[in-house]
Amino acid sequence: MFEFVGIDAQSNLVADLCELDELGFVKVDRNGLTTRTGLYAAGDVSDYELKQVVTACARGAFAVYHALHYLDTRVC
Fold first, then answer.
1. For residue 1, is it within any domain?
2. In the predicted model, is pLDDT for residue 30 greater than 90?
């Protein structure tokens, strides 16, 4: 799910789970991984500098790919 949050970060759902930046956006690495192992974020809630649909979709694809890899290497 990609949700446009405008200029205000809507990160309350994960505020206690991972690190946020000074504006309240979720800090992620280049693959969408947050500061909590196994938790990925993408789109307008993340601290990625571009807040556009096309970049949100691309960042979401990165996050899903790496989340699946994380699960594949730890489950079973």
1. no
2. no
Neighbours of 72 (CB within 10 A): 9
Give a yes or no: residue 2 inside a domain. Answer: no
DSSP states of 6-27: TTS---GGGTTTS-B-TTSPBP
Q: For the chain, what is the mean pLDDT?
A: 83
Angle at 56 between CA 51 and CA 58, to 5 degrees: 135
Residue 47: both structure tokens together: 């601290």
The parent domain of residue 64 ranges over 12-74
* CATH number of domain containing 52: 3.50.50.60
